[in-house]
Amino acid sequence: MSKLPNITTSIFTVMSKMAAEYNAINLSQGFPNFPVDQKLTTIVGQLATQNSHQYLPMAGYPPLLNKISLLIQKSYGRTPLPENEILVTAGATQGIFTAIQALVESKDEVIILDPSYDCYEAPVLLCNAIPVRVSLNDDYTPNWKKIEQACTAQTKMIIINNPHNPTGKTWELSDFDALENILVQFPNILVLSDEVYEFITFEKKHISAHSRTAILNRCIMVSSFGKSFHVTGWKIGYLIAPEHLMIEIKKVHQFLVFSVNSICQIAISEYLDLVSVEEISQMYIEKRNYFRNLLKGSRFELLPCEGTYFQVASYASISNENDVDFCKKLITDYGVAAIPISTFYENKKDHQLIRFCFAKDDITLAEAAKRLSKI
Q1: Cα separation of 250 and 69, whole Å?
Q2: How many other CB atoms are there within 10 angstroms of residue 35's CB atom?
Q3: Is 9's pLDDT higher than 90?
Q4: Average pLDDT, the chain
Q5: Where do the domains of the chain lie, and which CATH numbers do they carry?
Q6: If pLDDT is split at 50, 70 and 90, which confidence band does 1 have?
Q7: Which end of the chain, C or N, has fewer beta carbons within 10 A?
Q8: Which residues form the Aminotransferase class I/classII large domain (predicted)?
Q9: 239-267 pLDDT, tens digit each
């Protein structure tokens, strides 16, 4: 008997497999196809010949923990304690899974805001807890009235994602004010803040939960070096949480992976001395603008993109097909893979919207846009 009877193969896997079968340009899965910074690969090459291949401490490489603390201090004015409040994880997904497994109990309720990334629900179900899906507004801002109405005495956690995948929406100060008002009414609710695209924002500066002192004692922050430094295959992320929560999270972490890839941790620790995270957004804003300009003459309507490396587009003026069928047709007939937005909703809500990943080199984006403009 399956513990996850309603969870099937990920839409990202399905679309990437189809893209490979039809030799289509893959703008579906969120991974860059351009080279990693040579400074980083040089560090890795040097470490490969050194004694960097054995277990590191369970919580993470101590110099890396110190540099994460410094990064958070420079970025948000908060200084988490390296030895007590920071945990290096095997990617953000493992961090999310670990935090939920450690802190959510049977019959607890966990609020998930739709459209939502697909890794949130499964760990909730594996806790024998209850996912409560609440849709965002049509402009993808949080509907605080609905969120408040969904909160009960059984609510253990609210999962937030800012900048938001799949829509690229970012939160306003008023959104955090509304969240904090709910937390005052429900003092037992924890917040899991997925901020893996924190350094990929554009015209509006990212507002992090790190900057909200009122909720820090109840908040688990999720970050990703894989996303920030476009090394998604390394699967290196980190959690930051108050010590009383981190104690429980580490209990689960040690039996999932114990410790994370040693060379990758040491390499990132050294690389952080050579790179500025402020440069990351500039690179992606150029890619976003380049891709949007290429599609100006197409029949797609592009929605605003405030962060992440995803562009949501409406195909309503092109076809009446549902978004899953339309994405399959994009692959088979036009040679471009995208992700249907309905798959991010529990109720498969279909607004005829699809998601493109623009974390690709210019040649790839130009060819994809050429094909899309023919539709």
Answers
A1: 18
A2: 10
A3: no
A4: 96
A5: 11-37+277-372 (3.90.1150.10), 52-271 (3.40.640.10)
A6: confident
A7: N
A8: 24-372
A9: 999 999 999 999 999 999 999 999 999 99
Sheet holding 155-161, edge to edge: 86-89, 237-240, 219-224, 190-194, 155-161, 109-114, 130-135
Q: Looking at residue 234, what is its pLDDT?
A: 96
Distance CA 269, CA 77 (A): 20
pLDDT of residue 244: 98
Q: Give pLDDT tens digits for 216-230.
A: 999 999 999 999 999
pLDDT band at 110 (very low <50, low <70, confident <90, very high): very high
pLDDT, tens digit (0-9, with 9 covering 90-100), for 43-81: 999 999 999 999 999 999 999 999 999 999 999 999 999
Tell me the C-alpha distance between 26 and 16, whole Å: 7
29 confidence band (pLDDT: 50, 70, 90): confident
User: What's the per-residue H, E or C state across the chain?
Assistant: CCCCCCCCCCHHHHHHHHHHHCCCEECCCCCCCCCCCHHHHHHHHHHHCCCCCCCCCCCCCHHHHHHHHHHHHHHHCCCCCHHHHEEEECHHHHHHHHHHHHHCCCCCEEEEEECCCCCCHHHHHHCCCEEEEEECCCCCCCCHHHHHHHCCCCEEEEEEECCCCCCCCCCCHHHHHHHHHHHHHCCCCEEEEECCCCCCECCCCCCCHHHCCCCHHHEEEEEEHHHHCCCHHHCCEEEECCHHHHHHHHHHHHHHCCCCCHHHHHHHHHHCCCCCCHHHHHHHHHHHHHHHHHCCCCCCEECCCCECCEEEEECCCCCCCCHHHHHHHHHHHHCEECEEHHHHCCCCCCCCEEEEECCCCHHHHHHHHHHHCCC
pLDDT at 292: 98
The answer to whether 22 and 331 have CB atoms below 8 angstroms apart is yes
Is the separation of the CB atoms in 360 and 311 below 8 Å? no
**In terms of residues, how long is the chain?**
375
CA–CA separation, 61 vs 358, rounded Å? 32
pLDDT at 165 over 90: yes
